[in-house]
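Section 3.1 - Work completed
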Amino acid sequence: MRHFLSIGIKFVVICTVVLSLYSVFQNPGVLSLLGISIALVGLGYLLGDVLILRRFGNLTATLSDFALSFLVLFFYGIIMDIPTWEAGNMALFSALFITVTESLFHFYMQNRVFDEPSYNDESYRTTKRINSRTMQTETSDEVFPYDVRRKQHKKKNKQN
């Protein structure tokens, strides 16, 4: 169930980036963009998230996701008969946006899907509830030095 949710999150992110960038600069069909998004999600999840992320960590998986996204989107642009420099630019910007979100997605995968937390939840629980019935407040004369002087002055006046 956790894998289905993470695949869904990855699909929404990649589909949003691909549909927004490619539909602004070109006029491809929505079904072809959804198809390339599904291909990117499938390849990226199997290679980048399941295999590389578990073995080599976030940085390597993020770089491999960048390379995979760029290559797939660049060849998709060439297949769609987009000029090479334009296909390269769109693939580069799409891969950059996907890479930024993938680094955050890898953090989610490590902590929620693979059950390998990078931090300890117990270390953040430093505050405990304190029962007010077991605590007492204390004050000393040094807290209010003017009161101490006043008390000393009153004592001297009473003695005289």
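Second construct:
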Amino acid sequence: MDQKEFTKSILTYNKAAFDQFIASSTMAQEQMEKLAEMLLQQENTPEEGKKMIGEWLGNVRQARKDIQESLNNSYRQMETYLLSLIP
């Protein structure tokens, strides 16, 4: 196996591990969202609380997407850089 293939396989492995981490954290956050939605459905939850929890859930989803997009871009840049170093 030449250096480029080896480097690419290491990066692919690390990217797959990252993707698996994102998938498992997404599953955990979805369970948390279900719990929060159950809280929102209760009649004794004030409207301000419902609004706050809804905004919070939206912020968490957006932050997760932003982090994933940023790290995907970083992986692409790192792969391009490392592969450019190998003759």
